[in-house]
């Protein structure tokens, strides 16, 4: 923690608070903001506090550090260490094979060849690759590619055999194994079927979510923390809520902290696999400190809109899997959510389709009827395609949706093709505004990069990667978008008392931008550069 006194001035200071919207200066003592106001007021607040370091912003903008309430830190590090097979770099299955062949040249003989970022809807073939096609990369070693959503993988025949997946292996609850017409596995593993990667060594999570926790050495896991953290800090993100933490992530975060490698703040959402253990030990939301804490329990209701496994009543136009599937039977899901609520946890539930969103609504209603609690802020992660009738329930039950505007930017057009015109309501911020439901932005990194400025642009414009607009009625204002990635995001993780805005008594977490978003054209917002990132009064980028 910094012990110095700091005085920021000479630029536009956007506080994101409901009181002073902008200020001339900010004074910091140690890790805390002690004054927000004029230069004279801030300077006076530091008198007698020792040497004052003055920081002239030289016309740049100072904002509270961005808070990302849904970002998978170690998975982000993993994505940057695998071959990039995302669109538009990769536009066909042949492109994927070519990229992986190049990756093979960099990979030790016999080691696994991996790629991240598959998006079948943006491929020329409009389908997933198969094991036979990945055999064109290698037949004598394992090959694995992960979908951009993290909800499914495709592997070659070598790895299928290594994982013990054959025609006699049944589909698991909350998942599926892709098959050729003759019934043999075709290399495609959806949602809970990804547990096969961890059965020999690693974290097995059952029907509690897609297994993104690939087995690795402690040294490599620490590298994933470091790489993921670096990507967040260079984007001005000072706090994240990691929404799927298992024993693997918790141990890795603690080790990084013990070795003074952890700079940012992490609020952990523990996967529901561990709910019984946490209950027996008496844990609840809020355990920990300002840097590393337990925030909530993470549940999964359905799969992914982008991979075609979310539970939609309308079904899909581009898949034989018409409605996706649920991870739990409705009554079992309700039982888990009620138990977490009763124990004192906030819950955050992955629910993309309206069928899955209804499970959350019913679970929260039952929880409050059985064990009334105030200001819990149970959340729906993504809340991709709710039915309009569900919006009133979300408002009345005070549920917080946490969507990702970059998903509209990256995948919006594919969703519209997959579900029809209803896809224009993907991440329906306009409906939330109409019912006074909080507006929160996040990235779901590495599904989208942890780039708040791109997310803000996407939320304000509803533009897509292809240059079109999906759901213009769901645009929000620049102020709503900025607050959605700062103070409203902090509220979503119950941390608004310490972060999310520049106010006296809060932690000195800042991002310095080279331009003022309000003085920049909307189209230029994604090009605004992060000049510096500060946490607890120390410059970390």
TrEMBL record:
Amidohydrolase domain residues: 53-541
Pfam families, alphabetized: Amidohydro_3
CDD domains: YtcJ_like
InterPro entries per record: Amidohydro_3, Metal-dep_hydrolase_composite, Metal_Hydrolase, YtcJ-like
Molecular function in Gene Ontology: hydrolase activity, acting on carbon-nitrogen (but not peptide) bonds
Keywords: Hydrolase
Record's protein name: Amidohydrolase family protein
């Amino acid at each position: 923690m910094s012990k110095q006194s700091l005085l920021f001035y000479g630029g536009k200071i956007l506080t994101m608070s409901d009181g002073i919207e902008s200020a001339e200066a900010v004074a910091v003592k140690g890790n805390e903001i002690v004054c927000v106001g004029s230069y004279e007021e801030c300077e006076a607040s530091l008198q007698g506090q020792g040497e004052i370091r003055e920081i002239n912003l030289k016309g740049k903008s100072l904002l509270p550090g961005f808070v990302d309430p849904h970002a998978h830190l170690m998975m982000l590090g993993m994505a940057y260490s695998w071959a990039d097979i995302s669109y538009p770099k990769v536009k066909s299955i042949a492109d994927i094979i070519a990229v992986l062949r190049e990756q093979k040249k960099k990979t030790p003989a016999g080691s696994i060849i991996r790629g991240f970022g598959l998006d079948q809807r943006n491929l020329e073939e409009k389908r997933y690759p198969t094991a036979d096609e990945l055999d064109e990369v290698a037949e004598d070693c394992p090959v694995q590619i992960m979908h951009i959503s993290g909800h499914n993988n495709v592997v070659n025949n070598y790895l299928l055999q290594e994982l013990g997946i054959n025609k006699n292996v049944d589909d698991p609850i909350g998942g599926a194994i892709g098959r050729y017409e003759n019934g043999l596995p075709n290399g495609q593993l959806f949602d809970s079927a990804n547990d096969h990667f961890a059965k020999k060594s690693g974290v097995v999570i059952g029907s509690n979510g897609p297994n993104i926790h690939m087995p690795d050495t402690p040294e490599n896991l620490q590298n994933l923390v470091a790489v993921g953290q670096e990507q967040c800090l260079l984007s001005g993100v000072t706090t994240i809520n990691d929404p799927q933490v298992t024993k693997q992530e918790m141990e890795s975060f603690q080790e990084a902290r013990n070795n003074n490698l952890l700079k940012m703040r992490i609020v952990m959402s523990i996967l529901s696999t561990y709910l019984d253990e946490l209950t027996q030990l008496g844990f609840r939301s809020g355990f920990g400190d300002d840097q590393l804490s337990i925030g909530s329990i993470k549940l999964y209701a359905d799969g992914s809109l982008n991979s075609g496994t979310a539970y939609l009543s309308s079904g899909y136009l581009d898949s034989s899997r018409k409605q996706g599937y649920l991870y739990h039977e409705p009554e079992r899901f309700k039982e888990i959510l009620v138990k977490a609520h009763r124990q004192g946890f906030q819950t955050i539930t992955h629910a993309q389709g309206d069928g899955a969103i209804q499970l959350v609504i019913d679970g929260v209603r039952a929880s409050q009827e059985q064990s009334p609690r105030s200001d819990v802020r149970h959340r729906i992660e993504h809340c991709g395609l709710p039915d309009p009738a569900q919006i009133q329930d979300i408002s009345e039950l005070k549920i917080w949706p946490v969507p990702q505007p970059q998903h509209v930017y990256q995948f919006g057009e594919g969703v519209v093709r997959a579900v029809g015109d209803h896809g224009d309501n993907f991440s329906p911020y306009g409906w939330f505004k109409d019912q006074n439901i909080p507006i929160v932005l996040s990235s779901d990194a590495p599904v989208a990069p942890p780039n708040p400025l791109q997310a803000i642009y996407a939320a304000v414009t509803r533009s897509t990667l292809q240059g079109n607009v999906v759901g213009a009625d769901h645009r929000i204002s620049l102020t709503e978008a900025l607050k959605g990635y700062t103070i409203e995001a902090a509220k979503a993780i119950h941390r608004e008392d310490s972060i999310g805005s520049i106010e006296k008594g809060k932690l000195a977490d800042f991002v310095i931008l080279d331009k003022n978003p309000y003085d920049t054209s909307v189209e230029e917002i994604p090009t605004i550069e992060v000049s510096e990132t500060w946490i607890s009064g120390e410059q970390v980028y």
